[in-house]
Write a structure and sequence with these properties.
heterodimer; A: 267 residues; alpha/beta; Rossmann fold; 8-stranded mixed β-sheet; 39% helix; B: 383 residues; 2 domains; 7-stranded mixed β-sheet; 5-stranded mixed β-sheet; 14 helices
Chain lengths: 267, 383
């Protein structure tokens, strides 16, 4: 099926700024769905609030645009309600790790079969450029006019520690890798976390004098390296890309079926 | 031989069993006194019928999970108490805005804040109506005994499906924890409202938010043939966000009018000795038990006392209250808060100065003596 058949054309043009990385993530995601050959009726996309969350409006799946930070909780209800469905949750910095941080770690701990795509632009875009828990120390933002003293989470380490059974990271510069990783994340049975470094030239770029969207993407090329590369050993400041965790673990819906089986037999 | 349908149940267990009777097959919750027995009971019972029980990380996640599950076609419920109910307010508004049926039980404790976890209070009445932000309407039911807890719980599910809206069951600690006799209705004895699903076939444009002529909105389950958007933003008939003033106004009217224009269909109340009553007690929940005791005692002495027991608290049945109280010399609202239903009754009647409050706010269950003392005062007989 051509890519254009996966989108709701009548709702375009989208609301993202020119140069925003979110469109690249949307493109990769749709190519992944295309490659997997999934039927549109078996996909539910659940999102919270923010620039990234608006993806749900543009795709022709069952779509649920919910509350800030709560997407994974809604998604858990949808998945447990109908486990045959494929659940995808696009999330921003705040949705995933500020207001939604608790749901994030608990969803990982349960290992329920949901794919979370964390679109990390290190800023709150929709509200006008305030710092997020992924901005990092020293960054400037509209609520950090001098500099930011909050340290950032490492999404990969956090998701791994919380129990996610598939954890990966890449960037909007590495589009082919992104499509490949999202494909694997959807195929994986269990909670999958894909962190995508995605540029916000309007706020993060401008506030921190990084330049245009192209400049920001070039930095993704220069400052990242494949996981376990020689370059990383020589320059520990490089950010690793690739799949960090991919393991078979009991999945929550399947586990619950065991409870049903036991309860129906009588103890 | 004892009838096996006669049970000696706790109120919370009764609510859980009634929910199952009504078709509940998905529950998510977070433990909190005095509601936890509902979750405990359902964790045991739901998997026996192939249903799902989830213990989430907090009350916010719990209500979000049931809303998500409702979209896949399940009948859903969560249960909590004051602090948890406060946490649920944002998602309650989401369920109102997106018109997703669900049932939320609040077994009240004393508040504000952590308050009095295991003591009696009815302090969340106004929060139930106005806890979530923005203009909206809400349905809230309550009960004073287990037979009515059962009936109101089944009703809550029926109303949630009929009006596509969250329904609040506002019980209190006394009813929740008390044990008494319950006669379980037989299967089929109480009518159940099934989910209204669209008859529009796949491939034909389905408008999830275009009400039918009768005001009802047929649903389509997630995973089915109709793919549509659900959002807490104001939205058009396809469910896509819109800030068009006409669309905003029409949707807000739809959300409020579908409930407030049906007050008479939603109103449930019980009348005791009202025909010739010159003094009318108005009460609800466990307080109504003490109120009824007072009325029956006074009747033995020939006093013309009556009781109006409210089972629907919201939408408040102003017209019915005015009608029933038109001949009363005194109206006494009996409740365990600082006058939350009193305000509504004063607004409903022609002479608000004849409305008095008999209450307790110290966590102790209001007794017949407390009510009698107030009656003595207003009738000039002293305490």
């Amino acid at each position: 099926m051509p890519i254009k058949d996966y989108i709701r054309e009548r709702y375009f043009p989208h609301l993202w700024c020119s140069g925003c990385g979110h469109g690249i993530v949307l493109g990769s995601f749709l190519r992944a769905i295309q490659q997997l050959g999934l039927s549109k009726n078996e996909i539910v996309m659940v999102s919270g609030i923010g620039c990234s969350s608006r993806i749900t409006g543009y795709v022709d799946f069952h779509t649920l645009h919910t509350l800030h930070g709560r997407a994974l909780a809604f998604a858990t209800g949808v998945k447990m309600g109908l486990p045959e469905l494929n659940i995808i949750v696009p999330m921003g910095d705040g949705d995933a790790l500020a207001i939604g941080g608790n749901h994030f770690i608990h969803t990982a701990r349960r290992n329920i079969d949901i794919t979370a795509i964390v679109m990390n632009n290190r800023i709150y875009g929709m509200t006008g450029g305030q710092f997020s828990p992924l901005s990092g120390y020293g960054i400037k933002a509209t609520t950090a006019p001098y500099f930011n003293i909050d340290h950032d989470f490492d999404v990969v380490e956090l998701a791994t520690a919380a129990g996610a059974s598939f954890v990966a990271r890449t960037t909007t510069y590495h589009e082919k890798q992104l499509t490949n990783i999202i494909t694997k994340a959807i195929q994986h049975v269990g909670f999958s976390v894909v962190e995508v470094l995605t540029q916000c030239p309007t706020y993060f770029g401008r506030k921190n004098d990084i330049g245009s969207a192209v400049d920001m993407m070039k930095l993704y090329k220069e400052k990242t390296t494949p996981r376990g590369s020689k370059a990383k050993k020589e320059n520990p400041d490089l950010i690793e890309r690739g799949i960090f965790v991919q393991k078979e673990m009991p999945e929550y819906c399947n586990e619950y079926n065991k409870i049903i089986e036991k309860a129906m037999k009588g103890h | 031989m004892m009838n096996e349908n006669v049970k000696f149940f706790q109120g919370n267990e009764t609510c859980a069993e009634a929910a199952l009777y009504a078709g509940l097959d998905f529950f998510a919750g977070y433990p909190i006194t005095p509601s936890s027995e509902i979750a405990e009971h359902l964790s045991h019972r739901l998997p026996q019928i192939g249903g799902k029980f989830l213990q989430m990380e907090d009350e916010i996640a719990s209500i979000c999970a049931i809303i998500g599950a409702s979209l896949t076609g399940h009948k859903v419920m969560t249960a909590t108490s004051g602090p948890g109910f406060s946490l649920m307010q944002e998602a309650l508004g989401y369920a109102i805005m997106t018109e997703i049926p669900c049932v939320i039980v609040n077994v009240q404790r004393g508040g504000p804040s952590t308050g009095l976890p295991t003591h009696a209070s009815q302090g969340d009445v106004c929060q139930t109506q106005w806890g979530t932000h923005g203009d909206h309407a809400i349905i809230a039911l309550t009960a004073s005994n287990h037979q009515d807890v059962f009936a109101m719980t089944v009703d809550a599910f029926n109303l949630a499906e009929t009006y596509r809206t969250p329904v609040i069951l506002l019980f209190d600690e006394v009813v929740g924890h008390m044990r008494e006799r319950l006669i379980l209705p037989k299967k089929g004895e109480v009518p159940l409202v099934k989910r209204l699903r669209t008859s529009v076939e796949g491939g034909v444009d389905y408008h999830p938010y275009l009400p039918r002529e009768d005001g009802r909105l047929p649903m389509s389950d997630f995973g089915g043939v109709h793919r549509y958007n659900v959002t807490g933003l104001f939205h058009d008939m396809w469910g896509f966000p819109s800030d068009n003033p006409r669309i905003v106004q029409d949707l807000l009217h739809q959300l409020v009018d579908k409930i407030n224009n049906n007050v008479h269909q939603i109103a449930r109340l019980k009348e005791y000795y009202l025909e010739d009553a010159t003094t009318i007690l108005i009460s609800y929940g466990s307080s109504a038990r003490s109120a009824l005791h007072v009325v029956e005692n006074h009747r033995l002495r020939g006093d013309r006392l009556g009781l109006l027991e409210l089972q629907t608290l919201w939408p408040f049945p102003y017209g019915l209250i005015r009608e029933k109280c038109v001949n009363a010399k005194y109206i006494v609202v009996v409740e365990m808060n600082m006058g939350q239903i009193l305000r509504e009754v004063k607004m409903a009647v022609d002479q608000p100065e004849k409305v008095f409050l008999a209450n307790r706010i110290d966590g102790v269950f209001i007794t017949p003596m407390d009510i009698r003392n107030l009656l003595g005062l207003i009738q000039g007989k002293g305490v």
